[in-house]
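Worked problem 6 (solution included).
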Amino acid sequence: MSKSRVAITAGAVFLSAALAVSLFSAQPEADQKATIQESASPVPSLNPEQVLTWNCEIPEHKPESILITCADGGIYVEKIKWNTWSKEGATGSGILSENLCEPSCAEGKRVTAPVNLILSNLTEQNGKYYLRTLDITTSDGKDFRWGRANSFQWDVMEFVEMMDRDGL
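Solution. The predicted structure is:
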């Protein structure tokens, strides 16, 4: 493997780890939402097929799965079924899968739970429109069996912006 490819891979792993740490930090929910939300600007008339979201660095329309930790696939939502999809947002359901990384990520137990999904915060990038804020909530409203709170929010576009900014 070339040195540049190793550097890019290492950078992607580092960025994914940093994003995961920021996701699970003790930052108050109001601050997290303020970090993710951006000012809204007028949006042209869009049909649902023109509305995309991100699955790591891949733009997709109604993805069947979304990786949360892009570098190692430790956390993702799979088997997604979308109920609604428009420029106002999207709602659906799926299965959250998480590697608990105990005693290590290589040997960690994978746990799953049914979740409800909301994509929001339509954002323009290079003439295309993306739903960037993913809210994940347990289907039953209770905390995840493995101790995680019953909901969390993820900016699915942040990884793409970091990769673009850093030239990776």
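Discussion: The CA atoms of residues 98 and 111 lie 5 Å apart.
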